[in-house]
Every structure is written in C-alpha cells, then in structure tokens.
Amino acid sequence: MAEFLIKDEDLSHIKGKVVIVTGGSFGIGLATANLLLSLGASVVNGDIQPPAEAESHGGALTFVETDVTRWADLVALFRKAKEVHGRIDHVFANAGIGPRADYLSTAVDENGDLKEPTYDLLDVGLKGLMNTATLAVYYIRQQTEGGSIVLNGSTTGLQRLRAVDYATAKHGVLGFGRGLSTLVKVAGLPIRVNTLTPTWTDSNVLPNLKQMMDKIGVEVQPPSAVGRAAVAMMADSSRHGHVIHIARGRYKEIDEAVLLPAFESIKGDYPWEDDVLRRLMEATAN
C-alpha cells in the first residue's frame, strides 16, 4: 500500500495560484478553502450560500452563489473566476449532499402508482461534479502551464453501501476520475486529474455526524484532513491519475498501488479495455 505523508513544505507551491472550490462554504470545502487562503492562494468559492465566517482575506476570497446542478450557474462561476483573476489554476469539485432516495419505497402518487425515486444526490454529487470538471478542462487547457482538477469521491465508492444513491454517485466519481485522467493524458492536455476517497469525515453531508459517531465508537476525521489531501494533489505536479484513500488523517494511493494490479491478476492475458479502444480507433481511422 503506497502510504505517504503530506508535509507543510509539500503545499508551498500553491502560493499565488487561483483555485475554484465548489461547496466551499461548509465542511470539507470550507476546510480546503481556508487552507488554500492560509497558504497564499486565491479562492473562488461556488456554493448555494456564503460561509458563516465569511471574511475578505485581503480580496483573496471570492464568493459566487452557485447551484452545481445548474449549468448556467457553473458557467457564471468560472467566468467570474477568470474575470477577477485572469486565470484558473486548479479546481476542486467537491459539492455534495447526503443520501436522499428510497429504493424500497411504497409511496404512491394520486393515481396509486409508485413514485419515482429522487435523483437530487446524483444531480449534485455526480452530474454537478462532471459538469464542474468539464468546465475546468475548458478553461485550464487555455493556459500553457495547465493546472489540475481534484474530484471528491468517497471510500463508499470502493465497497458495498446500503445508501444506494450515495454509493452510486461515489462509484461514478471514481469511474469518471479514472476515465478523465486517461482522456486528458491521451489528448496531450496539460491537466492533471486526481480523485479523493475519504472515509467518514465530519462535514455537513449528515447533520451532527461526530456526535452520532461518538455514540457508536467510530472515529471520524476532521474535514481539514481531506482538505490537506486536496491541496497536496494541486501542489504536487507529479500527481496524475491517482486515487487517494483518506482515513484517520492517513493517506494512501490505491489505484496504481492496489486496484489496477488487482485487476491485472483478474483479467489475466486479456488486453486492457482502453488499449483495445485505442486500437479500434486507430483501425477505423485508417
């Protein structure tokens, strides 16, 4: 397992950079924004409401009211960042909400038909994240020196979880991050893509989480632990295509170190799917 430490000096390269953080008013997003600001970065926070402890930070913090489920809101967020700072170096696609859908529901409508499950969580945590990353690619690729995208997933994207919509979204984040990191590399774009998979973290996804976890004797990590990993992925130019597991403030790269080697043993001598896709595209181009 590729466990690593994040030293203070590892984060110093973020000074002077411009970072968009979605969901930056609470929990992990807020912790990340505060860390970035303390390191001398400029932050553009896109959230549905400003942080309770909103401060000017010398003009380094810009708040843009943003609902990540709305494409127009995300477009306005990126436009504002470019307008204020002239560039966008890194993007942390972080906005999310807690479980919403009931797939065992017996609730019916006025006709007596079963009601459709809600897709609110998927709209925020998966569609919103994918749209944020799409805009990030559009803007960052315009800069010769490029930049990076950090996606906030979850360790629940690696296991079975009875909160089905949440698990689905986080499995999707993992797949999107792995696919996008491959796509931008093949396209030769100067953009790095990394995915975080934190375990239980004290955030606003579930109310009073720490108090509840204390009752059942399960440790919950502070949002600053995840924020530190997010900033590390931005600051370290060698990080690309990595999946970072975060538990109890400890950090492990698990895709190249664990998941991909595990699948190598599963597939045997059958070729990698992406290699097959490359060869198909080359064959059809000729």
From TrEMBL:
Entry annotated with the keyword Signal: no
Keyword Oxidoreductase found: yes
Protein name: Uncharacterized protein
Cited PANTHER family: 3-OXOACYL-(ACYL-CARRIER-PROTEIN) REDUCTASE (AFU_ORTHOLOGUE AFUA_6G11210), NAD(P)-BINDING PROTEIN
Signal sequence extent: none
Name of a matching Pfam family: adh_short
Domain of life: Eukaryota
Swiss-Prot/TrEMBL keywords: Oxidoreductase
InterPro entries for this protein: NAD(P)-bd_dom_sf, SDR_fam
GO molecular-function term, one example from the UniProt record: oxidoreductase activity
Family: Belongs to the short-chain dehydrogenases/reductases (SDR) family.
Species, as recorded: Neoarthrinium moseri
